[in-house]
Amino acid sequence: MSEQKTPAPAANFIRNIIDEDIRSAKWGGRVETRFPPEPNGYLHYGHAKSIFLNFGLARDYGGVCHLRFDDTNPEKEEQEYVDSIIESVKWLGFDWGKHLYYASDYFDTMYACAEYLIQSGNAYVDSLSAEEMRAWRGTLSEPGKNSPYRSRSVEENLDLFRRMKAGEFPDGTHVLRAKIDMASPNINMRDPAIYRIKHASHHNTGDTWCIYPMYTYAHPIEDAIENITHSICTLEFEDQRPFYDWLLDKLADGGFFKRPLPQQIEFARLNLTYVVLSKRKLIQLVEEKHVDGWDDPRLPTLMGARRRGFTAEGFKRFTDQIGVSKSDGWIDMSVLEACMRDDLNEHALRRIAVLDPVKLIIDNYPDGRSEDCFAPNHPQQPDLGKRAVPFSRELWIEREDFEENPLKGYFRLFPPRLDASGIMQPGNKVRLRYGYVVECTGCDKDAAGNITAVHCTYLPDTKSGTPGADSVKVKGNIHWVSARHAIDAEVRLYDRLFAVPNPGQERDYIADLNPASRTVIHAQLEPALKDARPEERFQFERHGYFVADLKDTKPGAPVFNRTVTLKDSWAKVEK
Ligand code: ATP
Ligand code: MG
Prior knowledge:
The protein is an alpha/beta fold. It folds into three domains: 31-267, HUPs (Rossmann fold, 3-Layer(aba) Sandwich), CATH 3.40.50.620; 351-482, CATH 2.40.240.10; 487-574, CATH 2.40.240.10. The protein is 25% helix and 23% strand. Helix 7 (215-225) crosses helix 8. The longest helix has 16 residues, at 45-60. The two termini are 36 Å apart. The mean pLDDT is 96. The site of adenosine-5'-triphosphate (ATP) has 14 residues, from helix 2 and strand 8.
């Protein structure tokens, strides 16, 4: 990422908190954040917001950001997810140095903390069934009731908890609960469960444990063990903050951690239109094969984004632009697409591709002859030079650049025709971009009336870049590739995954999938694209930004994915 171009980060409420902490020397100037994914799925666009926030703060304040796998739940976690998360965070440009952690490495400390809570009268073993426990918890308007087991002695609690750990009881028979206040207006403070029995193997600790800490209990301890200063999470944890503080306060009293204790700060998660950002839904889309795996370019995973041709710099622009706030809202997909477009506009070389080819035959150009035309690699960056594009008698042009019966205002190719006074007018003239001006003379059709070739003659003195080039004025300017030199390639035109802004609002979200989210075509490309390397990105003039597919591009045989069109093609639809 280019450092010098990055403007000073915009102020936000989190930066204000950190600035104040630095001023008051609360942490001695230290800033330590963490990105704590649970390895139970692939990272998605929403995680990019959290990654740029946490790693970005660490970078801007000269601190560190930990990558921590929050792997306290034994059931849904897999190495495949760990690997893909590491890859995606690196792809976004971040480095955690030596700070790679697994929450499951802290199980011993978490267990010791739990025994301390029992001994200090702050936790008890409850033996109500899950159903009873729910019923006794009360509601938003009614206080909960104390469990009959709440008054167990410290000795009894300790004995039961140790036997839970030793595997004496089946799942669900007992839980360890914090002893706080069953009448608290905050339901999360009504003696939350902190350990449960689960006879399950864990990907890291194997069969060592048959009791596992609850997320809300484990997370503050993880932060405290790692000396996190600012523990940034999404808004749904706001109601958990009192428990976060209660727990760390008790454990600091017990000498487990030193004050000041990590501070939990909540921000609004990213909600984006035209996609779903829930791991559960993403898993369903993959498992039911609505998409081709986790890195399908249509899927809002970071692996998918990469294959789509989205860039890390584009995500940075996006997260800078949307900012960080405390109130939930929706961001339109067009904002993300515009950020990608802006980044690609700056960095992608220009190339020519004909996506819906029809032959253009220049009848007065000698068969067998060819010559070079010169096209700029980047019109705004002349130092990137020009490349030779071969020109010959037969070219491929876009089918839509010829109209047999044009409407008023059509400036591209059309054949000679009678005007209102019955006089034959010549066919229209256009410039073949970087080449000659040609005049349309007619077309060939098959028996069904489909156009099979367009005919024209060229004006030899009009070659772009030569002194007479502008002697003939034309309104149309079309792109082309020489048929003899072109390469035929598979191109996938990707579009939004869902057809509506809020999938699932009116019906099952699966029914809202966009049936046209992928169209596979065969295009004719200029020869310079033959050696495109996987992940090389280009602007195909007049069409959009494309990337050579990461997996399917082979030496000399690229396959391209459309990243975004040149303009927001959905803008009209939404109005
Ligand atoms: P789960 O439902 O499995 O908890 P999750 O999306 O919260 O899913 P985590 O692995 O817990 O997944 O997320 C890691 C971090 O990314 C968390 O700190 C979480 O707050 C943050 N995060 C997740 N989704 C978003 C989002 N849409 N916008 C911003 N941050 C997010
Ligand atoms: Mg989560």
